[in-house]
Amino acid sequence: MSEPRGVGTTTSTERGQSTLIGVVLLIGMVAAGSLGIFLIAGDAITGAEQQSEQERVEQAFVELSHTISSSLINGDTTRSMEFNAGGQGAITKSDAGTIRIYANDEPLVDPLTMSAIEYEGDDGSIVAYQAGGVWREKGDQTQMLSEPAISYDKESQTLTLPVTTFEGDQELTSGKVRITNDEINRVTEKTHVENSTVTLEIKSEYYLGWSQYFEDEVGPNAIQEQYQIDGDLGYVEVELGLEELEGVFRESFVLSDSFDTQGAKRSDYSFEEGGYTPSEIDDEISEHVAVTDTEENRTQGDIIDSSDTISNGTHFAESVHLDKGEELTVDLSGGDATLVVDGDIELVGGDVTVRNWENDSGPDRELQIYSTGNLYISGSEVCVDTCPDSHKKHGTSGVDASAFQVYGTSNMSVGFDKGIFEGVLFAPSNDFEGPNEVLGGTGHCSDEQVCLHSNPEFFGSLVASSAHVHANANEVEHDPQTEKIDPDIHPEGWVQPPEITYLNVAVHELSIENS
């Protein structure tokens, strides 16, 4: 029996429709795939074009920097060059930051305005010129393309800093540009800054680039501070110059402020007051603490408070407190020793003795103590080798006070109350307001940073803000051997900045426009 029509069979019409639908779907799939390939290829081409434009713009900015620098050096009035500003152009910014210059914390000039030329790509990346430097920035990533026009002449120890400014804010398009040197303002010319640290405070939208430049050229220790202010604007503080400290222990007391006595004649003591003293070393001592505060260096535990012996190497403690009958012996037979104390040093009857400091085959050995706190010596004997029977023997016994060195912050209060001290103290302070926390609070020692009370014996030298000697029985003697000390204020591995004797700063007022 035959099947009924339409049941279990497929007509030719239905087969034709299926074929047609399949062809349509296939064409659609091919078209969609082609469109996807086209879009991907289009994105790739666009990305490649953007990258190519970015590279051309970067090269143009570097060439612009070199042209401007060459023009300033040669004294050219006008120069022209081909400049590629990309498809959307660049802009000049007449006020794009400031730079302040200090020598030993004293301003050398009024704040200087810095201009800039800037290009911003479609991806948000920035190419910028400022004071000779060219940087590429994207987010918090910075790459230096050309160094700022800062130069240092090692032979003459001269730092030259040219600052460029542009008049008005305008757009620069691709094509020929004309650069005109309108005026030169020599802010400082051969300014003598020997034995000074030069500080640059820079506010700029490109502060990350400035920071990177000085870190690469001088070392990370030159960067004193860096932070974002608002938006792209940021701040970087750079310290340059090497302060010469050798010979600073030239008197018994070297003071930035005053020297006072009670019951004694000032003329009986060797001192300098109210003159030049070195920069404060608070930051350097904090760096010592940060570097040395490890379990490995806590060789005597957290606190040194009993009789013990330390040898060469680096040691760390949170405080030192020695009572009567306790003695800390420092054995330097193996080399120099460093003790970093993140707190006070209190010798209340307890003694410290430095032994084996002499070295027949090289420089004599030293103990260097760095403290963030106060120094109090009461009835204790701090001596290089055995303390002499009489103060008159300090200078004739062959003892060198250079073997015992204490370094303190600008806020260190110092008290010598009876006892003996052979050594040097380096705690420069330009603004010690008091009170003296160890022997002050009331009376004649209330405001002085260093107080000698109840007839102590002092053999060596100290650098501080102010000092007071109470009663004429105090025995103070300067050790001339300490003048050879070049105070070692930096931790091991610290990169010293170059020494600066002269500083040249010039502001170049320029015009730049499409010609």
Automatic annotation (TrEMBL):
Keyword Membrane: yes
Keywords tagged on the record: Membrane, Transmembrane, Transmembrane helix
Organism taxonomic ancestry: Archaea, Methanobacteriati, Methanobacteriota, Stenosarchaea group, Halobacteria
Residues passing through the membrane, by range: 20-41
Protein name: DUF7305 domain-containing protein
Domain DUF7305 residues, every copy: 272-484
Keyword Membrane: yes
